[in-house]
Each structure stands twice: as structure tokens, then as C-alpha cells.
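Submission sheet (multi-component)
Chains listed below:
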Amino acid sequence: MTDDLRAPIGTHDVLAPDSALWEGVIGTFADLAHRYDFGLVLSPMFEDVAVFHRGIGEASEVATKEMYVFTDRGDRTYALRPEGTASVVRAFVQHHPVTPWRAWYVTPAFRYERPQAGRYRQHHQLGVEALGSDDAQVDVEVIALAQRFYAAIGLRRVRLLLNSMGHDVCRGEYVGLLRTHLFAHRDELCDDHRATWDRNPLRVLDCKKPACVAVTDQGPMLPDHLCDACRDHLDLVTRGLDRLGIAWERAPRLVRGFDYYTRTTFEFVSDALDAAQNAIGGGGRYDQLAAALGGPDVSGVGFGSGIERLLLARAAEGISRGLIDRDPDCFIVDTTGGEEATVLADELRRAGLAVSRAVDGRSMKSQMKVADRSGARVAVLIGPREIAAGEVTMRDLRASEATQWRVAREGVADAVRTVLEGHE
RNA sequence: GUGGGCGUAGCUCAGUUGGUUAGAGCGCCAGGUUGUGGUCCUGGAGGUCGCGGGUUCGACCCCCGUCGCUCACCCCA
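Outcome: structure written.
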């Protein structure tokens, strides 16, 4: 209701219980990243603007019109990170860890644009980067991690689109051919690209307008013009994916938005989402990024995924199953003032249990209602009679018929555990 | 940046041709013989009708502006 102090446009607060899904997604990813031998990297949310200009490309849409650029009190020009890769690679360059270096991250990403479904000014990405090797096996592992991750969070209607951008020489030759073709057919392009095809010919490949599709359909496709080395690399990647049983599709038109990609590029799309925001993740190899940021001439490969998009895709697939259980194990009802509940709760929590309780001296009936809604499996009741007897009353909140029993005060933790196990 | 739709209780919404104390469901709180939840019943709290201006005897309703939400284009996660 206070309109003057809301979260900024295009940003969102995520509160429990919704946030449990975020915990689940991030936790699942952290666990998987560990299994795939990636270590967590934390890097600043803002960087010298040059990190992104040199990284994702000064001419890219994101860099030219979507970055949050600001000057700090010391007159330094910074930008809020619009994506994850550039700053991770910057960290790699700065610290020169032993290669191959494998890092995973989860971070907010900022882009100044009008919000819409699946598109926000602050969204969140998680991903991995592997630097210091150009072995195609790394590409395969990165893609496999992404694919296994989507499966782990329950997504089924996901397709992997694969392409190769070649390297600077063979792509350069290809772009020349494409530009010649586009020049010959420039009048047939869609309204937008009739003016911009020359500046960024690759973008035209990505255009969905029938006019552009008709032109590019007859033109040269990048995969047909790869050099031998790039072709071999792509073949190794596809063979690796085949051996892992990971389905993929060739996507010769796949052109990603950042300039740093070379060779392998891929995108995961959800068929449950509308085309405007169906990309739930993507990535690829970048041979020149580290060098562009002043580092060694080493290659890297990685991918990033938008958490909001993943959640959107889950919802669109009708997946309601949660990823983690954040309900309390037990709920303490104390009608003697609340001090006993505090003591018992602390004891149970130290024993590893998740405990909820009521405060403010509410009536037993009221506390029982709260206990019920809390999702706790069992209620632990403390009243004058229990205190006198040195016991508590246990009540199963999930049983269809009322069942309760007395337990010695010292044995509460074990009694709760017994109930929990009985439910599993 | 451009365009469409929408802004009424915490949430989802109703609100008659502008008319006198703005409603419902859910949620929340309290009761229903004073130690007990989930169903049911009763009662209660909660709204400057996004904000500002205008028209009018009178505006939640009409007009203008503004802010916000939302969807689409562009691009992407």
C-alpha cells in the first residue's frame, strides 16, 4: 500500500513458503556442481564497466541499452553485472588459479529493460564456467551437468539446441559469405533487419520473421563452413552427448547474444513456455574471453540458467512437487506461559530438529490451530499436568484419528524422531 | 524506448444509469461449558476505492495527468 517505498520496477521479493523452491533449485544445483567437480566462486555484483564491454561485446544489445552503469563517489565507472560469465572470467584472470579451473556460481543479474513475463530487471542465474582447456570433453560435461540439473528439478519438456560458432578465422570467412548473401537480398529482409543486417549479420539468422527466414534459408549456414578443427570439435561434442544418452538437435540458426562465444554454443528451451521466454539456459565455449580481459590465451566453456525461467517452466509443466521440505518437524504447544517451550525448543533444535512454536500466551485451542497450519508432523504439549509429571504429551497431527500419548521430558527428541520415521 | 490491458481489504474479486454507513470469498483474530488442531457455526479486526487535479449539489464510478502492475515488440535468462 505504501507506494513510495516498493521494490524497484522489475524486481521481486520472494517470501516463504515460495522461497523453498528457490532453496531447492539452488541446493540441487550446488550439489550437482560439486559432483561434477565445480567449486563455488563468489565475485562482486558490479565490475568496472570495461569488464562487460570487453566481455559480452561493446555493440551487444545488453551492453548498449540494458546495462546498469553508474559512477561511484570516486568517479569510477561501474556496471551491475548483466550476466555471470564475464566477472567469473575476470576473477580467473586476476587470480590465475591452477587450470583447468572449474567454478560454479549463483547470482543476481541486472538488465535495464521493460519487465514482462519471464523477464526482469533483476533476475537470478546459476551456472558453471570451466577455464583453461579446449578439450571437447569439457563441453560435454558442462552440457551434461545442465541437462541432469533440469531433470533433477523435474523438468521434462526441455530440448537441447546445439550449434558451433566456429573460431575467429572460419567464422570471419562465413560472415563474409553471409554478408554478401544478405546484401544481394537486402530488400527482402524484414523491416528491422533491412537497416541493421550490415552491422550484425549473424543476428538476422536469429530473426523469426518469415521475410528474414526466407532469405537466410537460401543462404550459407555456419556449420557448413567450419574449419576442420572446429568441425572435429563439434563432432567430439555430439559424439560425447550421444554416448551419455543426451538428446540434442542441430540448430544452425542459433546465435547467442554475447560476442564472446566461439565453437560450441547451445541453448536449452522449454516447450512448456512461449517462444518469447522459452530459453531456460544456454552457454558455450569462449576462446578469446580470458585474453580479452587481459589474461592468458586460454579457452573456456560454461553455461548459465535463469532461476525465474526454471520456475516458470516448472509451473508451465504443471509440476507442483516441491524440492525440499521446509515444514517444521514438531510444534510445541505450551500453556504455562512459554518459558518451558523456549527451553524445550532449544534442546530439540540442538538435537537437529526443526521446531516451531507459538508465543504471546495464546490459548491452547489457538496454539493447536497454529500447530496444524504449520505443517508440523507432531505437536508436543506442555501444560501444568505435564510439568507436574515431568512429561510432555505427544500428539500426531497427521493421524486421521486423534492419537496422543505421554512421554518422559528427557525423551522428547527421540519420541519426535520415532514419529518422523513412522511417516517416511 | 513503443504499444495494449489493469489499479477497490493481506489475497482473489464484486460494486447497479455518478447518490447518503464500500461488499463477498479466502486468510487473520476471538468465541462455540474455561487442557487440544484439521469439518462446522457465531462474532471481530482490516480499505485516505494507487496518487494529484478537474467536472458535478454529490465521484470507486466521468475527464486529464501521474505513479505502479501486467502483457507484447526489441533482446534475452
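Remark: Chain A has a mean pLDDT of 92.
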